[in-house]
Amino acid sequence: MKIPLAILFLLCVTNSFSQEKELRFYIEKAQTNSPLLNDLSNQIKSNAIDSLITKASYKPQVTGNLLANYAPNYNGFGYDNAITNGQSVSGLVGINQKIMSKNRINTQAETFKLLKEGLVLNKKIAFKDLNKTIVSQYISASGNQEQIVYNQKILELLKSESQILKKLTQNSIYKQTDYLIFLSTVQHQELQVLSLKQQYQNDLGLLNYLSGENDTTFVRLKNPKITLKSLKNNEKFVFLKQFEIDSLKIQNQNKLIDNNYKPTAALLGDAGYLSSFASQGYKNFGLSVGFGLSIPIYDGGQKALQHQKNEIALATNLGYKTNFNKQYQQQLTMLHLKLQQTFATEKQLHSQLQISEALIEADKKLLVSGDAQITDFVIAITTIIAINNTISQNKINQLQLINEINYWNSND
What we know:
Blueprint: H1 5-15, E1 19-21, H2 23-33, H3 35-57, E2 61-70, E3 73-74, E4 77-78, H4 81-84, E5 87-99, H5 102-170, H6 176-210, E6 219-221, H7 238-260, E7 264-275, E8 285-294, H8 302-369, H9 374-409
Parallel strand pairs: 1-6
Antiparallel strand pairs: 2-5, 3-4, 5-7, 7-8
Helix pairs in contact: 1-6, 2-5, 3-5, 5-6, 5-7, 5-9, 6-9, 7-8, 8-9
């Protein structure tokens, strides 16, 4: 008989996990399987090839051309022989060498350099986005795993006490109704554990999905070691660098515009065979050289208008940068404030937990002698479960906040 996947999962979690995995495993898998990172890597390679293609265009361009032409003329009817020569054959190898100024070459090289820097930056941000997503899901899954372990221990405690209370109830020390209330609490805890295990199954499945892995293995997650990070003294903030690159791209566009309005020159030449066969066609082998020069004179003021557009783009970029700086500082302040709140909450919760644990231990001893009420013990158990679940959730929130701060406050 085939065992349903959900039941198989519960059996695996209840007994033992087949293996243990850590956060780094999922991050590396996600980076390896990410089509976006692969796309950006290929774009960087493609940009390097485009740069080489442009450099190749600076070299002499050699072409071979072959043309045979015949224009018949009969009794004066046909194309004018003065124009067509009646027939002609040409087989020429032509060469065209652009004369490029050092400034124009450097500006073009800067264009590709800035494109590469933009792509590298986009890839770095994509890394950060992907890592943040994986870490966030790992925190959720591992936090849920901790809740399973704790609630399972509470369930075992309740089942152990249930056997003791059953005998005491049979000996009429406790009422049957009180014992049934306790059994109801045990069953509710069983349902809670089942719900947490199912949630862990979903969390683990989503973690594998985000990592690009088709893995249904039930594993135990190691506790994530996540600490606050900060920029090194010589590092530039990755998000601010985007504005810097955009500004440099606009300045580079201004240089390209100026270069387009400078004279362009080229050396021309060809060699080969060119003849109309009018006379002594066998002598019509030769060569020719030439020089081409293009000088822009007037375009209706387009150059000035293009520069104006770029000035507007620079102002817009500066505005976005200024606004980002303000929001960035505000966001980090709020995140750090929330993080400090979780530390304060954690301290208070652990203080409450110590009291509740002491109460549980006292009630356990009193129950054996019949000097405590079952309902009081149930209330104490319910309270300590609630406190521990709150502690677990507070810890998850704490790690999520650290993950968020690291995203904005480091280049890793």
